[in-house]
UniProtKB/TrEMBL annotation:
It is found in: Endoplasmic reticulum membrane; Microsome membrane. Belongs to the FMO family. This is Flavin-containing monooxygenase. InterPro entries: FAD/NAD-bd_sf (IPR036188), Flavin_mOase (IPR000960), Flavin_mOase-like (IPR020946), Flavin_mOase_5 (IPR002257), FMO-like (IPR050346). GO terms for biological process: lipid metabolic process. It catalyses: N,N-dimethylaniline + NADPH + O2 + H(+) = N,N-dimethylaniline N-oxide + NADP(+) + H2O; trimethylamine + NADPH + O2 = trimethylamine N-oxide + NADP(+) + H2O; hexan-3-one + NADPH + O2 + H(+) = ethyl butanoate + NADP(+) + H2O; hypotaurine + NADPH + O2 + H(+) = taurine + NADP(+) + H2O.
């Protein structure tokens, strides 16, 4: 019986693991990657690339290596708990090499369309049209895995800022930010206190004349490093804590976590305390 053929779209972390899982299940994967390299989001470039997520030069992952590594391929011991983006990419390269995944990837190949075959109700097959160097090809696959990520396109709601068309300064989305050099001596406002907003506020403050961080509802802010120097996510994810949450319930868990977080700095005193509980919305790390 012929192996079922699977199209994998994208060669970032999800694409690489999808190729490996297909091989382990006796399937025949073929991955299409529109750029010339693996890594997706984690491959830094000075200029944002169309159709691919973009990161700034200083990005450090906010998940510890103990929690983010693949179960069958641990991150090397000498890597830091929280890795720079270049180390995350290097780990994915080692992973791809270890399991011989690169030979299943067609680089510089854009997927133009994916649609069901006319006999899909009986065959379950898909028609995938790709383009590479101006040449289009049509494939038929038994399954399609879409691994294109969700940080590709910037959300810049300019209609929410009346008068922006008269603003004489510079404005752009964090997707286009790469380093703080262009902000030397300037007054800067950063809108949003998510992970990117927090990172940029800190980094730009070393160069700018003044930095404002604007948040409409406050945020719970967690440090990467928890009690006794352990990564915070390994502490929160212990079996004991999981059991404790089941015993004491959601409300008591929120009270306990908020008390711990406020011991680091009092959110109310700094005007950061939000109305939502700490487990309602992802905190800023």
């Amino acid at each position: 019986m012929a192996k079922k053929r699977i199209a994998v779209i994208g060669a970032g972390v999800s694409g690489l693991t999808s190729i490996k899982c297909c091989l382990e299940e006796g399937l025949e994967p073929l991955c299409f990657e529109r750029s010339d390299d693996i890594g997706g989001l984690w491959r830094f470039q000075e200029e944002p690339e169309e159709g691919r997520a973009s990161i700034y030069k200083s990005v450090i992952i906010n998940t510890s290596k103990e929690m983010m590594c693949f179960s069958d391929y641990p991150i090397p011991d000498h890597y830091p708990n929280f890795m720079h983006n270049s180390q995350v990419l290097e780990y994915f390269r080692m992973y791809a090499k270890e399991f011989d995944l690169l030979k299943y990837i067609q680089f510089k190949t854009t997927v133009c369309s994916v649609k069901k075959q006319p006999d899909f109700p009986t065959s379950g097959q898909w028609e995938v049209v790709t383009e590479s160097e101006g040449k289009k090809e049509v494939y038929v696959f038994d399954g399609v895995m879409v691994c294109t990520g969700h940080h590709t396109y910037a959300h810049l709601p300019l209609e929410s800022f009346p008068g922006i068309e008269k603003f004489k300064g510079q404005y752009f989305h964090s997707r286009d930010y790469k380093n703080p050099d262009s902000f030397t001596g300037k007054r800067v406002i950063i809108i949003g206190i998510g992970n990117s907003g927090g990172d940029l506020a800190v980094e730009i403050s070393h160069r700018a004349k003044q930095v404002f961080l604007s948040t409409r509802r406050g945020a719970w802010v967690l440090n990467r490093v928890g009690d006794y120097g352990y990564p915070f996510d390994t502490i929160l994810s212990s079996r004991f804590n999981h059991l404790l949450k089941k015993i004491i319930g959601e409300s008591a868990t929120n009270r306990y976590l908020e008390k711990k977080i406020n011991q680091r700095f009092n959110h109310e005193m700094f005007g950061l305390k939000p109305k939502h509980r700490v487990k309602d919305i992802a905190p800023t790390k």
